[in-house]
Each structure stands twice: as structure tokens, then as C-alpha cells.
Amino acid sequence: MQTEDRRSYVLRLLENRPSVTVTELSAHFGVSEVSVRKLLTAMEQEGTIKRTWGGAVSTSTLLAEELENGREPAGIAEKKSIARAAYACIEDSDTIFLDCGATTIQLARLIRKGKKRNVLIATTGLNIAMELADSGDIAVIMIGGEVQPSVLSCAGAFAESMLNSMYFDKGFISGNYLTVNHGLTTPNADDARFKRIIMEHCRETYIVIDSSRFGDDSLSLIAKADELGNIITDWNVPGELLRGFENQGTHVIQSTK
Question: Are 187 and 176 in contact (CB under 8 A)?
Fold first, then answer.
């Protein structure tokens, strides 16, 4: 079965049921669970599904449940908490790179409303630039390139060319998955290279990543555990796991509810 056939099969399953598991897909396709995780990660990157622990759910199903119950999107409390911890690391007059992502948009909203001023923000995130565009003494540089609609971001050679001429006090970087053994990873090799360039151009790097992203690996390495600088995450990550990163020399900031 080809990759596109597997994608179609997953989507057909999710039209008729709330979730699928890695184990059942591995058995059906006759491939390893690692291969299934890579498939689901790629589909999540495209915005067609949402990864869960051990499987996936339909994005349309997830949204319908949230709207029906009047809830904010899953994990938003954790993301807002991480954003508050990240905001505490910012000082007046900092030059900052904000990566695209659900947590960094929350950080952008805090920057817009907060007391720390004369901050310069560079970003590839279209929604982040729009959030900060009329913030008075918050300067915004939009790093342009090929638009990626699924994540509201720009990437590619033009973006890399702009970034290569810039240096930042602090960078707040997102990623798909994080483990002590393999570090920070993402499904797309081009995204991994771009994020590495960002990190090389920041005096201090902060990985903003919620607890759902720990414990799994993706295809392309962004940075090893001992190269991350700082990790900001939420209260759900076990302390023993975080100590594994601290033993690698990475500073960990764990946000509270």
C-alpha cells in the first residue's frame, strides 16, 4: 500500500469513528509502529489530523467537540502558562525571534499587552506579525518567503536569506517532538534546517513546548538535548524526565497552572 493510500485509509476511518491507534494501523498496513507514527506526524503537519498519545483523531471531530462543549482548544491552558513563563524571560529593548506556533501566538499577545516595551520582534508567523503590527513601541520584522498555509508561516530560501543577516538576543522556538535521547525533532527536513539557523542566530534559545510533545521522535533533527539552551514546558511533564534534560546541561523552566 502506497503512502497516499495509507493517508486515505486513515481519513476514511476517522470519518466514521473518533480515533485510530498506531497499533491497529501498524497491523493493517503491515509496517512498523515507527513508520505509522511518521505517517501520522506528516498528516498532522498538513492539518488533516491531530496526533494523540498512541494514535490520532480527526481535526474536524476535535473542533466540533470543543465548540459543542464551549471549551477552548485542547491544551490551551498549558500553552498560555508556557507563554507566561516565556514572557518573564523577556526584558525591555530585547531583540527577539518568535517561531510560528500555538504557544508563540499566546506569547505575542502577552508582549502586545505587557509592560515590557521597545522590543523588536522578528517572525515568520503571519498571525504573529498581524497580532503585533499596531503595537506602538513594539517593532515587527516579517521574515518573508514561501507561505505555508497549514501553519500560517513563511519558509524557504528567501526566508533563510533574510535570517542569515539578523542576530537576536532571544529566540523562542517550537518543535514537534522532544526526547532526552534524540533531542528536538520535526517531520520536515527543511523546517529542521531553518530552525537550526534560527538557533545559531540567537544569543539565548528557549524551546517552548507543551507536555504532549514529549516522549516521541520525528524524522529530522533540529538540535540534540545538550544543544537546546533552555526548555519552557508545562506542569504535566514528570520531574524525572526533566531532570534528564538538566543532566545534559539544558536549563528547564516548568510553568504552573
Answer: yes
pTM: 0.74
CA–CA distance, 54 with 80 (Å, rounded to integer): 25
E strand intervals along the chain: 19-21, 49-52, 55-58, 95-98, 120-123, 139-142, 146-148, 153-155, 168-173, 177-179, 183-186, 202-208, 220-223, 230-233, 251-254
pLDDT digits (tens, 9 = 90+) for 212-252: 889 878 788 999 999 999 999 999 999 999 999 999 999 99
* Domain of residue 219, CATH code: 3.40.50.1360
Among 12, 42, 68, the domain-final residue is: 68
Q: What is the pLDDT of residues 177-216, one digit of tens each?
A: 899 999 999 888 888 999 999 999 999 999 999 998 898 7
User: Residue 9 CA to chain centroid, in angstroms?
Assistant: 26
Do 10 and 103 fall into the same domain? no
For residue 224, what is the DSSP state?
A: -
Is residue 141 located within the same domain as residue 230? Answer: yes
Domain range for 98: 76-254
